[in-house]
Amino acid sequence: DTGVSQDPRHKITKRGQNVTFRCDPISEHNRLYWYRQTLGQGPEFLTYFQNEAQLEKSRLLSDRFSAERPKGSFSTLEIQRTEQGDSAMYLCASSLGEATNEKLFFGSGTQLSVL
Amino acid sequence: GNSVTQMEGPVTLSEEAFLTINCTYTATGYPSLFWYVQYPGEGLQLLLKATKADDKGSNKGFEATYRKETTSFHLEKGSVQVSDSAVYFCALFSGTYKYIFGTGTRLKVLA
C-alpha cells in the first residue's frame, strides 16, 4: 500500500492550453474523488467515481473539465482551454467503498498555475 | 444546502495550552462529521469522526463530540504540542457520496 499518488506535483501552463492530471488510488479502493482547493479554502467537491462509473459531478465542473476512470483503476482529470481562475490545488482521494461515510485517503495534490 | 463553518485562523498557542477549534454545520438529515488534518507538505488525513448524535470521536489526544442540538462538532485537545501544528478541516458527509469541507483552521504551536 503506497497510498494515493498524483502526478504531476506541480504544473505551470499558459492560458488556453490543455492540461491532464493523473491519480492512482490505493489499489483495492472502489471509490475515487476529485476535489479542488484554493488558498485559504477547504477542498471543493468536483466529481466522484464508483469503480469506472462517474456517479456525480459538481456544478463547479464546467464543460472544459472532464474526468475518466477507465477500468476502475487510475483516473485522469483534463482541463481544456485553461483559464487563470483554474489555478488551484487539485486533490484526489479514494476510499474502500464498504460504507457510505468511510474515511477518505488523499493524495498530496497537483498544484496548477495558469499564467 | 449543506455547509460547514469553522472558526478562522490562524490560532497560535504555546505548547501544553488547551485547544478548541469551533465547527458548526447545516445539513438535512443526519450527517456524519469528521475532522481532517493537513500537516505541512502532506495530504489531508482523517483525524477523527462521529457518525451519530452524542458520539465522541477521539484520536491522538484530540476529541470532538457530535452535538445535534447545537449543530456543532468542536475539536479539542487538552495539551497541544509543536507537532500538532497543521491545518485542521471540519467536514460532513451529506449522504450523496459528497464530503463538504470547512475552510480550514491553521494551528501554530510555539515551543
How does this model look, in words?
The complex is a heterodimer of chains A (115) and B (111). Chain A is mainly β. Helix content of chain A is 0%, strand content 49%. Chain A is built from no helices and eleven strands. Chain A has strands at 5-7, 10-13, 19-24, 31-37, 44-50, 53-57, 65-68, 75-79, 88-95, 105-106, 110-114. In chain A, strands 2, 4, 5, 6, 9, 10 and 11 form a seven-stranded mixed sheet that branches. In chain A, strands 1-3-8-7 form a four-stranded antiparallel sheet, with no helix packed on it. In chain A, strand 7 and strand 8 form a beta hairpin. Chain A is globular and about 40 Å long. By secondary structure, chain B is mainly beta. Chain B has no helices and twelve strands. Chain B has strands at 3-6, 11-14, 19-21, 23-26, 32-38, 45-50, 56-59, 62-65, 75-77, 86-93, 99-101, 105-110. In chain B, the strands form three sheets. In chain B, strands 2, 5, 6, 10, 11 and 12 form a six-stranded mixed sheet that branches. A four-stranded antiparallel sheet of chain B has the order 3-9-8-7, with no helix packed on it. A two-stranded antiparallel sheet of chain B has the order 1-4. The A-B interface holds A 3-4, 31, 33, 35, 40-45, 48, 50, 55-56, 91, 93, 100-101, 103-109 and B 4, 32, 34, 36, 41-46, 49, 51, 89, 91, 93, 95-104.
